[in-house]
Amino acid sequence: MHARCRVRVIRNRIPRNAGVVAYTMRHASADRREHGFTLLELIVVLVILGLALSLVLAQGPVRSPTMEFGSAVRQVTGALRLARSRAIADDRMVPVLFAPRGFRLDQETPIAFSSDISLSGNRLIDFTPDGGSSGGEVMLRMGDRQMVIGVDWLTGRVKLSERG
Predict the structure, then answer these.
(1) How far is CA 104 from its chain centroid?
(2) Are strands 94-99 and 158-163 parallel, antiparallel or unpaired?
(3) Domains of the chain and any CATH numbers
(4) Predicted local confidence at residue 7, as pLDDT
(5) Distance (Å) of CA 131 to CA 57, 158, 164
(6) Measured at the alpha carbon of residue 79, what is the angle toward residues 121 and 129, in degrees to the nearest 5?
């Protein structure tokens, strides 16, 4: 009698429409397969994306002379402003040395520009602990464009002006 109770409990748990549920589940999984992608389709898409990426990378980075010149101007002005701040914060003299193709802030690694960009003007600008400087001008030139970066000797402030 104990076995019959278990069988009855199991039979009572099976829904009456179990056959219908199994039938619809089989067809639902078949419908899902029709909406997906095959492995071949995915491989074709990946190959096309790979070819497109290789074409883009073969061109190399986009190089704009205008952007390169603007970047050089920002680097020089940023270095001069950093030198002034560092001189005040560290209470010491901070030099910025200029060469025809680049510059060096304090004892850091020199920064070099491309051969299209040239620097002229003061070769050395020192910043003092009180915020002042030796003053001077540095001119960056690229083709027709010229930017003059001036440093006030009294305040050490950096100012930009465009020429030509």
Answers:
(1) 24
(2) unpaired
(3) 65-163 (3.55.40.10)
(4) 46
(5) 47, 11, 31
(6) 95
Tell me how far apart the alpha carbons of residues 155 and 158 are, in angstroms, rounded to a whole number: 9
- pTM value is 0.64
Contact indicator for 127, 94 with CB cutoff of 8 Å: yes
Please name which of 22, 156, 8, 147 lies closest in space to residue 82, comparing C-alpha atoms.
156
| 5 vs 122: CA distance, rounded Å | 103
Profile the chain (164 residues) by mean pLDDT over runs of 10 residues. Answer: 50 57 55 74 93 83 84 95 96 95 93 92 95 95 93 94 79
The Cα–Cα gap between 77 and 74 comes to 5
Nearest Cα neighbor of 156 from 129, 132, 123 is 132
